[in-house]
Structures are given as C-alpha cells and as structure tokens.
Amino acid sequence: MTMDRRQFLTATAAIAGASMLPFSVGAADNIKFGSIMDTSGGFDAYGKPMDMAMRLAIDEINANGGLNGSQIDINAYDTQSDMALYTQYAQQLTRQDEVDVVHGGILSASREAIRQIMRKSKTLYFYNVLYEGGVCDRNIFINGVTPAQQVEVLIPYAMKKAGKKVYVLAADYNYGQITAKWIEKYIADNGGETVAVDFFPLDVSDFGSTIAKIQAADPDLIVASLVGGAHLSFFRQWAAAGMNKKIPMASTTLGVGNEHKVLTAEEGDGIMVAYNYSQELETPENIAFKKKWADAYGDANSIHEIAVSHYQGILTWAEGVRQAGSTNRDDVLSALETGISITGPGGVVTVDPKTHHAVLDVHIMEFEGQKMKVIETFTQRQPIDTQAVCDLAANPDDNTQYEIKF
Amino acid sequence: MDLAAVIVVETVYVIASLVLISAGLAIVFGMMKVINLAHGEFMMMGGYAAITAVNLGINIYVAILVIAPLVVGVIGLIVERLVIRHLYGRLVDTMLATWGLSLFFVGIVTMIFGNTTTGISTPIAGITVGNYQINGYNFFIIVVTILLVLAIYLVLKSTRLGLIARGTMQRSDMASALGYSPDRIYMATFFVGSAVSGLAGAVLAPLVGLGPSSGGAYIAKAFITVIAGGPSVIAGLISSGTVFGIVNQFFTFAMSPVIGEVALLVCAVILLRLLPQGITARFFKGKM
Fold first, then answer.
1. Would an 8 Å CB–CB cutoff place B129 in contact with chain A?
2. How many distinct structural domains can be found in chain B?
3. Which of A219, A222, A212 is nearest to A273 (CA)?
4. A55 forms bridges with which residues in the sheet?
5. Which of A21, A123, A218, B155 has the most CB atoms within 10 Å of its CB?
6. Is the pLDDT of residue A107 over 90?
7. How far from A109 is each of A37, A90, A127, A191, A283, CA to CA, in Å?
8. pLDDT higher than 50, residue A23
C-alpha cells in the first residue's frame, strides 16, 4: 500500500482526533483531585506513604463507581521537600488545573505557605497531618491529632507510671515550641514539675552533654518532641548510655514516620506515645486496610500515622461530596459542617463544625519489639485546644493561626 | 564529683570525635591541597558500608574497622583516578568537582537505600560512674581516635613511605627527579584519606540516625577544624580539636547545646582572625 503525504496527514489527524475524543469528553465530567506534598527529599519518609495512601483511597473510590457517578482524576505534584515549590505548585493547581479540592502539605511551614492561596482561589483544602493546633480558617479541614488530644492523655499516663519530675526536650521550631508549652501545661495540671525544657535545632545530632545534664537534673520522666533523622540520634545515644532502663520516656512525635522500626527493639522498648493509629490495632477496618495496602504495594510495613490520617481525610472529603451531591466548594463545606463521620483504619473520625478539626480516637501505646502496642484507648477526643480559640460558626471569616497562651 | 568525671569524659569524647571526623579531610587537604567537598559523603558512605555489613551478619567491629574503610577507600581511589587527578593544583575546580560528586553520592545512596534514616545500635553497654550512666561507646571512639592519630604519626614520621609522601607533598618535582612517581603517591594518599573518612563515618554510625544527606552535618565542622589547625596535619588536628571541643562543651554544660555550637563557631572566627594561617603556623611549627 502506498500513501502520499496528504493521505498520511489526514489519517493520523483522524486517529489522533478519535483517540482524544473519549478522553476529553470523560475529563469534563471527572472530578479533579489535587495533591501536593513531598514525595522526594528529606521529608519523603512522611510523604511517600501519604502518597500511597492517597492513591489507594482514590483507586478504591473509582473502583466503586466514583463519587456521584463521576470518576476522580489525580493531579499530583511532588514538592521535593522544598518550601518554595509549594506556592508554585499551589498556584498551578488552583489556576491552571482548577482542581475541585487539594489535599496535602506536611510540615506546618508548607501548610502556611499554601493555605492563603487556597483560600483566595476558593479551593477547598485538606491538611491531614498531626500538628501544633490553632489554625482557624473555614476553607481548611484538618484531621491530624492536635496537642490537646495527644498530650492531654499521654502526660497523665506517663506521669502515673514514672513520677512527677519531668524533663522536656523539643525541636526548635513552631511545632516543638508550641507543643512544649502544652506539655508544660499538662504537667502542671497533673501536679507535676517541669525540671527543664531544652530546644534543639533540627540538625543537632550529638546529645552526649544533654544526656549528662538530664542525669544531673535527675527527673522521673523524659518527654521528647524531637523531629527528623538527626534527632533520632538522641534515642540511640540515650539507649547506648543505658539510660532507657533507668528513666522512662514519652514522645509526641516518635513513631509518626515509623521511627520505631528504625530503632532496634532494645533501643525503643518502653517508649510511651499517643496517636490515632497503630498498625497493631485489631479493628476490622484496620485489618481490611492493611490487606488492601499489602495487595497494592507488596507489604503493609510502610503504613504510618499520617498516611492513615491522609487516607481518612480523603474519605471524609469523599463523604462530604457524596452528601452535597456535587463538588461545589460551598455545598461540600456545608455538608462537612453538618459533622460528617467516617470510619477509617484509626477508628471513627468526625468533623468538628466549629473548628474544622477532627474528633477522633487516641490510643496510648508503648513500643515493644519494634511495634506500637496499644495500652489504652480514649474514644472520640475533642480538639479542645483549637476549640478554645476558634469558632467558625460564629466567625466564618476568621483566618488566623492562634497560638495558645497560658 | 561524679558529674565532673562525666563532663571530662564528654569533653574528651567531643575532642576525639572532632579529630576523627576531620582526619580524613586533613590528610587530603593538608597534604594534597585538594578541597574535598564530598568529605561528608565519604563519611556517610562509610556509615552505610558498616550498617550493610552488620545487617549481612558480619561482626560489627570488623564492619566498622575493616570493611567500611576499605569500601570507602576504593571509592576514593576510583574518584581520584576518574576526576581528582586531572585537577591537581586547580583549587576551585576541585571544589566544584567534589561538590558535584557529593550530590552524586547523595543521589546514588538514596537510589540504593532509599531516603530514610537507618542505623545500628552500639555494641557496648553503658558504663556507670557513681550516680551517672555514660555511653560506653564514647570510650571506643576515644580509643579509636588515639590509635588512628598514632598510626598516622608513625607512618608519616618513621616509615620510608611516610617520608616519600611528605617529600612529594613539599616538592613533587624533586620526588619525581629521585625516581618516585608523584601520580602514584597522590593516588595512595587520596586512598588513605578516603579510607580514614570512611572509618570515621562507620565509627560514628551507631550513635546517629544515618540518612543519605547526613554528610552535610559533618562537613562544616571538619573544615573548621582542619583550617583552624593550620599546616601541620597531626599537631593542627589535635590543637584545634582540643580548643573547639573544650569551648563547645563548656558552653554546652553551662548553657545549652545550641549556645555550645554558637560558641564553637565564634571561637573559630576569632581564632582565624588572630591566626589566619591556623594554629600550627604560629605554634608547634615544623611539627607534623
């Protein structure tokens, strides 16, 4: 068969046109889901499992026929652990892609970098990470654990077990500073004494002198709100000095990025934490979730607290869209503000209409053999820290991150 | 009293670790005038080599003291043959090239091991001093550092090899005229320098959470120590390590670890203002 240039062009144009046709028709009806977070670089230990959880959730919704009959398309951007890329990609998501919702952000700095862009463009935004509390903005929904939910149950438990003299170690940025204040408040509320509070920049990795200072102060309990790889050295050096057998420790951050699997059992055993999720939860939802994860990704080892938080955030949004019957921001907002509940791997999660934070279960856990063993469960904790300062029902135009003062 | 003992041990440990992380750089920079910006990554790879070996069931001391230096030494050898040897005498070019190498190593380690924090636990139990517990591994680091410094000293001072190396560093044309190939000697020196960096990374690995970008944490301190030390490799390392270690620990115990770091840097600035050529350009002159 011979074909001249003109015939060739006509034929390819027709094929190209035909192949584009169903796609463009379909795309017009599809829901556009925006995802923005660090799936490479220094924070990818957090971000990669979050991305996996997001794809799992969306695939599942699509396999079950989508939302209100529409399939969901993912527009995902990798911010490469670079805060500058957050604003750039947020602009792209809201202006160019014109997505219906954005889920993402990991560090508090990244959330604050894009929150106003979402608000101005009236794009619904979900931040699904454990954080320091206090954000009050009607355009954002947050379902991570806040200090009041976590510290309020962790501190009394740890103090009852260990004693009343407490030494606090925290990362030196807004998360650590604010969380340390909460820790001090609850130590005082429970009749304890804060011997000292030490802050560490994120790149400090030698804690020898700190360990000696702690021993000089002779506390009954250590509370550590340390963040990132360098700070992991503290737990290792603490164990190397044999201190883990002498002074008990609680942490508000250890385990969020599956650190209990990086530390050996001897180093980690006995450390007390409080989160919404543990891989060891024996609920049918969690067993099913772990199986789905393992089917999709080989094994379920990479699941962690904020991956589950992210998954539950997406389920919450999906339920909001279902009840609203559309993806229109105001309709979904109103639907979510009726106090929607979903049941995720970490239990029931309910939207608190006043603060747009989440009411959820918190479990006290202890590290044991590189696992988080659940000791005690507190069901449906309110985000009382943010509730104390934020009422979006009364002030729907509020747009502040409140810092808690004592 | 017990606290005093603990503080002394901690201070000696900080001095030892400063000397340890700087030794490889001191050899490469002090002797060859090559600024190896990938020094931190050499250490990081030493750590990974040790951790991988331990996970494969090899004895931890063999992994730290033998395998890690060998692996990193060989990597250094390849780097020297492929890149560095074309750039001797071109200070800025070596900086650029080794900086590129450091990015390359971070990338390649991330590809192989993933961008997550790993580690092994220390093989030595804590030691009780009165009411205090000290990290027993600190003593291991101190001993390794002393042995390492002694070894470098003895090799340079009293072996023919050391003599040839020192001669080549001073006048490579003369060494060449006497029948020694400077090319070979540079190669061997770079191998030794890299191996020592690998050893340092491996020795410190059990104390830290190691990730592909951990090297960045060491490079600044290593450079400050080496530059402030001045032209003599060993006397420079020990003198600047001691000054910085004592200043750092004094302020750490008196105030906080952050102030300790700040004090170390301020001390470095003052030192370099007063002694721009380094400590050993004024004191301990002519020593090694």
1. no
2. 1
3. A222
4. none
5. A123
6. no
7. 12, 14, 12, 34, 34
8. no
A341: left (phi over 0), alpha (psi -120 to 50) or beta: beta
Q: How confident is the model over B192-228, as pLDDT tens digits?
A: 999 999 999 999 998 887 888 888 888 989 999 999 9
User: Do residues A43 and A128 share a domain?
Assistant: yes
Name the β-bridge partners of B128: B133
Mean pLDDT, chain A, as a whole number?
89
| Averaged pLDDT, A103-117 | 91
Instruction: Identify whether residues A268 and A285 lie together within a single domain.
Output: no
3-state secondary structure A265-290: HHHHCCCEEEECCCCCCCCHHHHHHH
Beta-bridge partners for A249: A222
Token pair of A203, please?
């790149």
Q: What is the pLDDT of residues A268-285, one digit of tens each?
A: 999 999 999 999 999 999
Work out the burial of residue B56: count CB atoms within 10 Å of its CB; fewer than 13 is exposed, 13-18 middle, 19 or more buried: exposed
Pick the last residue of a domain from A259, A275, A291: A275
Other CB atoms within 10 Å distance of the CB of residue A396: 11
> Is A212 close to B122, i.e. CB distance below 8 A?
no
Q: What is the pLDDT of residue A6?
A: 66
Which residues in chain B have their CB less than 8 angstroms from residue A198's CB? 256-257
Residues 6+ apart with CB under 8 A from B175: B164, B167, B168, B182, B185
Mutation for testing the A interface, residue in B109, B110, B141, B208 having most A CBs under 10 Å: B208
Distance CA A248, CA A212 (A): 16
Considering only CA atoms, give the Rg of chain A: 23
Q: Which domain holds residue B72?
A: 2-212
Is the pLDDT reported for residue A105 higher than 80? yes
Complex ipTM tops 0.85: no
Cα–Cα dist A240/A375, whole Å: 26
Using the Cβ of A203 and the Cβ atoms of chain B, whether some distance falls under 8 Å is answered with: yes
**Looking at residue A16, what is its pLDDT?**
54
- Interface-testing mutation among B133, B207, B249, B259, with chain A (most A C-beta atoms within 10 A): B133
Judge if A108 and A167 occupy the same domain: no
> Apex CA A89: angle with CA A84 and CA A95, to 5°?
135
Burial label, B178 (beta-carbon count in 10 A; 0-12, 13-18, 19+): exposed
Q: What is the mean pLDDT of residues B61-69?
A: 94
One-letter amino acid of A194? T
Q: Is A246 an 8 Å CB contact of chain B? A: yes
CA–CA dist A9, A361 (Å, integer):
62
For position B89, what pLDDT does the model report?
A: 82
Does A343 score more than 90 pLDDT?
yes
Task: List the domain range (segments joined by +) for residue A139.
Answer: 30-145+280-360+384-401
pLDDT of residue A7: 67
Q: Are A91 and A296 in contact (CB under 8 A)?
A: no
